[in-house]
Amino acid sequence: MTNEQLQGALAEYFAPWVQDLGLKVESFTQGTATLRLPQNARLSRVGGMLCGQAMMAAADTAMVLALISHFGEFKPCTTVQLNTSFLKPLSNQDALVEARVLRAGKSLAFGEIDIRGADDGKSVCRASTTYALL
């Protein structure tokens, strides 16, 4: 598995509007994936704050890529639960979206995501997820 293969999964498995987020694979290990969500005026609210909807979509996407890195291939899955807590606004900087698989069984997978500022490293959003493996 390479960064390029995971990056290619974005085009292969995700809807065009998700691709429009401009996510870039920064790094991965088995069961993790870190993506960069570029600062973008179309994803921002007043004052350059990144909107929560973009963070949630990026978190969900990063976890699917973490599952790919965990299994070594794409396995069809669907989000069962995405619980998100917004800790503070993220303004005028890219976001780093770090997803980690906590446990993956035969039918369910569990993970957590931390979103932080790419410049200041401060955590702005935490999420936990459950996926059904199809």
UniProtKB/TrEMBL annotation:
InterPro entries noted in UniProt: ACOT13 (IPR039298), HotDog_dom_sf (IPR029069), PAAI_dom (IPR003736), Thioestr_dom (IPR006683)
The entry's family comment says: Belongs to the thioesterase PaaI family.
Its name, as the record gives it, is PaaI family thioesterase
Q: Locate the Thioesterase domain: which residues? A: 52-122
Q: Which PANTHER family match?
A: ACYL-COENZYME A THIOESTERASE 13, THIOESTERASE SUPERFAMILY MEMBER-RELATED
Is Hydrolase one of the keywords? yes
One Pfam family hit: 4HBT
Query: What phylogenetic lineage does the species belong to?
Result: Bacteria, Pseudomonadati, Pseudomonadota, Betaproteobacteria, Burkholderiales
| Keywords attached to this entry | Hydrolase
**Which Gene Ontology MF annotations are present?**
fatty acyl-CoA hydrolase activity
